[in-house]
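thread from #wetlab-drylab

HS: before we spend reagent money on co-crystallization trials with iron/sulfur cluster, can we at least see a predicted complex? here's what I'd submit
DV: go for it
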Amino acid sequence: MPTLKINGTSIAAESNQTILEAARSSGIEIPTLCWYPKLAVVGNCRICVVDVKGSDKLLPACATKVADGMEVTTESDRAIDARRGVLEFLLERYPGEHLSNGGREKPANEFEEYVVRYGVIPKPRTLDLRGGDERPGDPMIRHDMSLCILCTRCVRACEDIQVVGVLDVAYRGEHAQIVVGNDGDADRAACTWCGECVRVCPTGAIFEVMPWKTYGKARVEADHVARSVCPYCGVGCQIDLHVKDNTVVRVTSPSFEEDTPNYGSTCVKGRFGYDFTQHRDRLTKPLIRKGWEREGTRWVWKGPGGTARRDGPWRTMADEGAQDKPSAPPRAQGKRIRDLPLLDRITMDVRDRATTPADWYQPFREATWDEALDLAAHELGRIHAAHGGDAMAVFQSAKCTNEENYLLQRLFRARFGTNNIDHCTRLCHSTSVSAMQAALNTAAASGSMREVETAADVIFIAGANTTETHPVFGAALKRAHERGAFLIVADPRQHELARRADIHLQMQPGTDVALYGAMVQHILAEGLEDKAFIAARTHNVDAVRQAVQAYTPEKAQAITGVPAHLIRAAAEHYARGPNTSTLWAMGLTQHLTGHDMVTSILNLILATGMIGRWGAAMMPVRGQNNVQGSSDMGGIPFVYPDYQPVQDLEVRAKFATTWGVDPERLSTIPGLKVTEMAREGSPTRGLFIMGENPIISDPDIAHAEAWFRGVEFLAVQDLFLTETARYADVVLPGGSFAEKDGTFVNTERRIQLAHKAIDPPGDARADWEILVDLSERCGLPTPFTHPGQIMEEIRRVAPSWAGVRYERLDGTGGLQYPVPADDHPGTDFLFPDEFPTADGKATFHPVEYAPPSELPSDEYPYVMNTGRQLYHWHTGTMTRRSQGLDAREPIATVEIHPDDAIELGVTDGDQVKLTSRRNAITISVRISDRVARKQVFVPFHFREAAANLLTSPVLEPHAKMPALKICAVRIEPVAVLATT
Ligand code: SF4
């Protein structure tokens, strides 16, 4: 380890470090412009030059390795002179008027800070360089290239971090300039609007639009900045919310050097999708359905009976779908979205769609919190007294904090004695959980995103479009591929990672079991299995050996359509690793045979021993930002927090003591799953929904909607009057992620602390505050005045969380559970020696291929697949109210293969009618070769073309997961509409 002196201070450095790295790790600042953490070193700006004893020349600190005995002076006279020279040279390109712009007290950016620090006086600009805005009118990212100093950070960040390569340097010498793509068209250059260029630009030449008040260089100075966690996907990026006058005006991300899951990056949703918090549709007061009246201490319904009680002036979702109504406004029809003027895209939502229609409020009256909570407590108590706990049910929220999810299940378990508690994990990874519990007795990822990025030799991704659904992780996967990891993708669609993959197994939808079975068969046949791992750490391999015998690669080829040689090659690469990480998501889980598909992946993992060491991660990639935490906090019907079974009497006694209730009050009967609660014949009479919108997310919406209209009492706690909330008896306005303290768990079991940045609007309240109040009113003592106190109770009852305290989370990258003690550092990967089963071994489970639940026919010749898009999230309640995001993807589109489009006689932007065996929607065409022939893809974010009106309600038998991924449809051009 070399020891050197920097400014007289002795420093022990790593042998491969540069002077700059050694200085930074010791807290010594050296100015930098072209250098930036994690970017390739180019060493061309020379502002980091330092004096090294014995060297005639100044040396660039970013490109000079440390040596033992080296003596460095960072601020010598000649180093300072050299820096002044660099700055003077750069100022020849830079507008002097910007330096004094508006008499700002503080320098406007990193570059100007150096100008001020080194006392450089700008001369009139000598070069007549381009200025102006290359992205005019863009609601998220704008350019003012008159400020560009050509440090090329943006070019390298786009290439090296996001692995996109939208930006480049064009021309040479004094004419050199940064350009977008080949022609200035960011769309054509495949920009994803992640804002990495904004983040690294030291001059503000590339900058974000601040949706509040103004755009541009007149940047609003924040009153304060609060560290939070992105409200969208399970990557759990940490973000900093800049607040002015109780409004979030800007989002930045932590430095690359902080140990956060995102290493300082975000995707477009994290950086720009925050303005929904200020959207005019936010609920600011509790609402009570007209017809409820308080009589003394009782509440009485005096409105119409039956489902008429929930009638409104609106049309039902089924009505909407059934009519031949264009899903896009007239301006958008017959055009590709990218051809629409930006202003049209931006304002479309205001005039046409997405936001809450005014008439949805008509059946409600505004209420006080006292009235609203009193009604909720009264009706829940009445139904419980009359019908017992089985008549109650709860949808928890994968968007709310751990503390809030803990409180909600605590109320319904302790006060109402029911385990009918579930959340949207049922619709995304419940089959992963059922299969992983059967094989390994676990319900979470074994590893970390970072190990996949840095240590996996082979990455196998099944049914996951990671670059769109988990973009920051997607970028990490691309970086892993760039460093040499071998990428295998199994997916019916040719999404970005599939195109990049070394092997793309493009199977027919729903044939995964045959595909992975054949990979196991080939591995066993070739003797590529990890025999020592199988012998020491598993049971039942022979049953799988037997079951896969018939699934030769040739047989799998006949079923899946994937050539046998590709199946063999994929199997061999997977088995040889030496470290193979395995990722999957909803493309695998949302099938009638989803449990079997995940089981067959687990068989692959176990046969090759690809688990339990750094680089061999097992990662079901979780959807929402706290779907893992909601499960961890007991938001599933058969376990208390930390997966402690409801049938276990010792566990029951522990929770009863903690909650101060008689153990007999706590039910030992596993409860209903969400897909069982909202069904004909369900015993549910009183339903409480926090932050979920099942009418859009459930399969076969028409049936779901009819059920919700008929339920005896419905309370909804949410930010907006959603498609589900409009049927509620009482609506409680909750707080967004920015309006509360609390913790979230990301896809790698990382518990992170988010701080409150702003107050909720109007009378809205943080969800935990509402739940404390409601619990007290329901008669359950809930004496919490801050989420930190709730966490103290959680760590007492959840052994894996025993060492989790707010002080340990604050200002850090969080803790990956298990954290069994106060001094435990957390666990970045699991199962190095044993699995959490009775004997520490995992179990192989044989599975047989079964055809998909719904096959195409002459009448319904296409297979529809549903999923997410980059710019939207789930039911669109937040992203469609975020101006920049909605402008990028303003209308619902169906992806159709070019050859199918020719056959159908349709082109981009045309309207088509999609009809399944259940219902129909009208939707715009997007021609795309990402889908195979006779397959189409429909996002499920758009209520005006709700994909789930079409999908089948058939449930997977183990986890009761709906088979959302396969639905047979027919497509008919709606020519008349395209011209109206
Ligand atoms: Fe948010 Fe996920 Fe994007 Fe990160 S990758 S910014 S968590 S949506």
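DV: The mean pLDDT is 91.
HS: ok that's useful, forwarding to the group
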